[in-house]
Amino acid sequence: MFDTKAILFVTPSAIQGFSVRSEQATEVVNLPWTTENIGAVLGTARAALGRTVRLLVGEQFSYVATLFLSKDATYASPEEERRAVCDLAGKFIPENIAESAWDYQLLSLPDVDLGRPVQVVALVASFARVVAPAVKEAGFRVAATLPESCSVARLFADRDEPILLVYKSNLFFVAGVMRGVVLSSATSLQELTFESIESVAHFMRDRFSLVPSRILFVGSCTENDLMHFDRLKAQQAGFAIEFSEKNALVGLATKKDVSGDDASVLSIDLHAAESPEEVSSEQSSEGEAKTNERFRSHRLDERTRTERSAPEATNPPRISRRTTILAALFVLIALCGGVAIFFLKKKQSEVSNVRNAPAAVQSTAPLPDTVPLSGAESKEPPPVSQDESPTEPDPEVNPASFRVVLENGSGIRGAASRLREDLTKEGFVILNIRTAVSTQSVSFVRAKASVPEEFLDEIIGNAGLAVSLERRRDISDDAEEDVMVILGKDVASAL
User: Fold this and answer.
1) Quick one: 31 exposed, middle or buried, by C-beta within 10 A (0-12, 13-18, 19+)?
2) 141-147: strand order across its sheet
3) Which of 37, 227, 253, 376 would you label with 108, given CA atoms 20 to 30 Å apart?
4) Residue 403: beta bridge partners?
5) How far apart are CA 441 and CA 1, in angstroms?
6) How far apart are CA 66 and CA 109, in angstroms?
């Protein structure tokens, strides 16, 4: 007998409530939300849905990755195993998931011989810190929490063949799936094309040695949605095309394993994320501001953005014209003084040749809301050091010195291909391009320890990415590639 399940679905634009029974979903509430009104919206949803719900998380707010533990690794306790999985996920997910809410599940994939497979799902930290306390305050009891892709994929656990699932939410999503497990995923921001689907197939082949031959359109995908999809090209490439009315709501509603052993049950503990009340008084103001900024910077529909500032507890003080003029004069004087100091230091550096090393700026993961802010905080650039002999330029970086792999985790179709063209023109050696294991919020670079910083500076600059890009020295010496550039959602402005 199929019990009725209440589903709370959080997307970037709305919080929706559904009653699901016998694989039929009935919408009971649909309200737009922001970080300011989320409490009131969830209160309305609570009255409509009842206390116990299952939380379906929009794909934009989550990370999904299938990784591999060492076959020979043994762990003294479940806690030790969980720590090992967390450490492994840190090499692929551009956030410290230990500071958010996440879970894992050990898998059985006999067709994939890369180690002990493990599925990792995590919430974007800033999303969890906003939503988790609000859900708790509204009085909900969350029985299970999953991203969309995992909820859809589990409906096809009986498929032994690797398949490509295409489903439509706010955007189009393409997931490479095997026995109900998401192996890879990508997002198409504009339109659904055969190339965007094919890129996921290539990743499954290159990463897992699996060759999908079936494209399955699920949920609300219509013929109109496929206007840019070249069906003939797909068929010529050997893909069978199939349609299914199954959707993520039903996938989560029919989930039976909602409790049990940590390694065998995949369900995020929403309240594992640190709540705002747990943040120290010294950090609360800065932490809330940064969370809101990240949350507001990621809006799907750019045309509906409205420029508003973060809400204040009180009305801001009015600034008089006199104060404004005095402030402007102060800034002008400071600038003049800064110029004088710059030239003085420049003269001194010609004698002492003292170099200042630039400090790295850590990028933060953007998140959604209806109130956009200006993006990542900016830092003053480090002072430029002067060489003793201006006639001797720094040695040029040979772009062909190291081999590069590009991974597209931006969700933007063709981003890696476009970057490959640009970098190839500059002389860089691009071994391969592929789709990342999961969509990334921010770009980052992985490299061997032997790759000089100058080379990384050069490739990042030519790619049009931020100079503050995180750099991880975690590629093994025996790997074929020397550098890996993983593109995140933040490359939209560069492209």
Assistant:
1) middle
2) 24-32, 14-21, 5-10, 52-57, 141-147
3) 253
4) 429
5) 41
6) 11
Nearest to 480 by CA among 437, 439, 440, 434: 434
Q: What is the mean pLDDT of residues 253-277?
A: 76
pLDDT in tens, 179-218: 999 998 776 656 788 888 888 898 888 888 899 999 999 9
Angle at 448 between CA 443 and CA 450, to 5 degrees: 130
Q: Which of 11-15, 134-138, 304-308, 403-407 has the lowest mean pLDDT?
A: 304-308
Query: Is 156 in contact with 175 (CB distance < 8 Å)?
Result: no
What the block records as the tokens of 221 is: 């995908």
Average pLDDT estimate for 282-301: 37
Please report, for the chain, the start and end positions of each structural domain, with discontinuous segments joined by +: 5-276, 403-492
| CB 69, CB 20: distance < 8 Å | no
Residue keyed to tokens 């394993």: 257
Indicate if the alpha-carbon torsion angle 309, 314, 319, 323 is positive or negative: negative
Residue 467 pLDDT? 62
Task: Out of 6-15, 220-229, 313-322, 436-445, pick the least confident.
Answer: 313-322
pLDDT at 354 over 60: no
Cα–Cα separations (whole angstroms), residue 14 to 3, 10, 11, 100, 295: 26, 6, 5, 22, 14
The total number of residues shown for the chain amounts to 495
Superfamily of domain 5-276 in the CATH hierarchy: Protein of unknown function DUF3822, C-terminal domain (3.30.420.260)
Cα separation, 110 vs 98, whole angstroms: 29
Which residues make Cβ contacts (< 8 Å) with residue 415, sequence separation at least 6? 408, 487, 491, 495
Q: What is the pLDDT of residues 423-438, one digit of tens each?
A: 888 888 888 888 876 7
Higher pLDDT, 135 or 411: 135
CATH class of 403-492: alpha beta
Residue with tokens 């503990």: 269
Calpha distance 31→438 (Å, rounded): 28
**Residue 325: pLDDT above 60?**
no
